[in-house]
Design brief:
Layout lengths: L6 H6 L4 E2 L3 H19 L10 E2 L4 E2 L3 E3 L5 E3 L4 E2 L3 E4 L4 E3 L4 E2 L4 E3 L1 E2 L4 H5 L2 E4 L2 E3 L4 E2 L4 E2 L4 E2 L4 E2 L4 E2 L8 E3 L4 E4 L2 E2 L2
Parallel strand pairs: 2-5, 3-6, 4-7, 5-8, 6-9, 7-10, 8-13, 9-14, 10-15, 13-16, 14-17, 15-18, 17-19
Antiparallel strand pairs: 1-12, 11-12, 19-20, 20-21
Amino acid sequence: MISRRSEKQKMLSGDLYVASDPELQRDMAQCAEWLARYNRHDGTLHERLGQVGTNATIRAPFYCDYGYNIFLGDNVFLNFGCIVLDVVQVRIGDGTQVGPGVQILAADHPRDPALRREMLESGRPVTVGRHVWIGGGAIILPGITVGDHAIIGAGSVVTHDVAAGETVAGNPARPLHAGMPRG
């Protein structure tokens, strides 16, 4: 059966899609134009983002794929050089602080090399709870949920969900107890 959904519809639902589709390329070009304006200014040009809460701050430079899949709560702070690959929704809750150079990656690729050769991509939503602290240089992989009040150590690679109130660090990120990695 042939799918009648557009590549953009497939992308937004997290299914495999062709990133070189003309509509998606146009969306990315529009986003690149917006980012050029955004990064020349003081980080207040939020019109392209899906939602921006009161007093949310994004310090330039900032990088994303589309912008319209990024939803920020009130008092969210993203420091310099953050990257959000937002092929599907990325939600960041109220009061969350994101350090410099953090990467939040909702974009994914098939594990099957034949599908990768077809230039197919997919996405898995990322949700970061309220009052989370993400240290500089951390990487959050596709499909991850970080619970409220969690802490992600600087330079960590988050490969699994993080429970509310938990502190994780390392590569891969692991829970810390009394300052020592568990396991």
